[in-house]
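Quick one:
INPUT:
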C-alpha cells in the first residue's frame, strides 16, 4: 500500500518575521488528533530555553469555542515530529536525514582543499645534494625542492669559492623526471 497525501508539508506562515506552523496544521498533516499533539508539545522533554524559543501558546476559535494551540518554529517542529510514529512521520524523518546528508556532503566538498597542480613539474620533486670532501673525509647534505636546486647549488659553489657558472638548465631533464615515478 502506498501512502499518498495532497499536502507536501504542514502549512507554514510568517509570524513576527519567523516561519512558523501551528499544532493544528501539524495534526492535520500527520493525521493525528489535535489535542494529542498539544499534549505531546506540553510534555516534550527539552530544556525550558528551547521550549520558550520554539513554541508559544495561542488560542483559536472554532464554532464559537476557544481552543488552545501552539505555534512553533522549524526547530520546534522538527523536535516534535522526530518523536512521532507512522508512515508519514517515517517519510519525514527519512527526507530530513537525506537532506542533512546532502548538505553535509556539500559542506565537506567545500571545505576540502582542491588539489594543487603546478604548471611546472619541478615544484613537486625534492632534491638532495650531497657533497663529499675526500680530503677531510666528511660529507655535507642539503635537501630542497627541485625548483630551488639551482639556488642551493649556486650557494654551495659560492661558499666553496667557486663561481656557479657551470650550472645550466637542461630543458628535457624535468620531462624525463616526470615520466618516472620517484619515491
Amino acid at each position: 500500500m502506498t501512502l499518498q497525501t495532497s499536502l507536501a508539508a504542514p502549512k507554514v506562515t510568517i509570524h513576527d518575521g519567523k516561519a512558523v506552523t501551528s499544532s493544528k496544521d501539524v495534526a492535520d498533516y500527520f493525521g493525528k488528533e489535535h489535542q494529542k499533539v498539544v499534549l505531546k508539545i506540553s510534555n516534550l522533554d527539552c530544556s525550558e530555553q528551547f521550549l520558550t524559543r520554539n513554541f508559544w501558546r495561542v488560542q483559536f476559535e472554532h464554532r464559537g469555542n476557544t481552543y488552545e494551540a501552539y505555534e512553533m518554529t522549524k526547530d520546534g517542529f522538527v523536535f516534535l515530529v522526530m518523536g512521532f510514529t507512522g508512515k508519514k512521520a517515517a517519510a519525514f524523518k527519512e527526507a530530513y536525514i537525506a537532506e542533512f546528508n546532502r548538505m553535509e556532503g556539500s559542506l565537506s566538498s567545500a571545505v576540502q582543499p582542491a588539489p594543487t597542480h603546478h604548471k611546472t613539474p619541478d615544484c613537486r620533486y625534492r632534491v638532495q645534494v650531497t657533497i663529499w670532501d675526500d680530503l677531510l673525509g666528511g660529507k655535507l647534505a642539503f635537501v630542497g625542492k627541485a625548483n630551488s636546486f639551482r639556488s642551493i647549488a649556486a650557494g654551495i659553489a659560492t661558499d666553496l669559492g667557486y663561481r656557479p657558472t657551470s650550472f645550466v638548465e637542461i630543458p628535457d631533464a624535468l620531462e624525463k623526471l616526470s615520466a618516472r615515478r620517484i619515491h
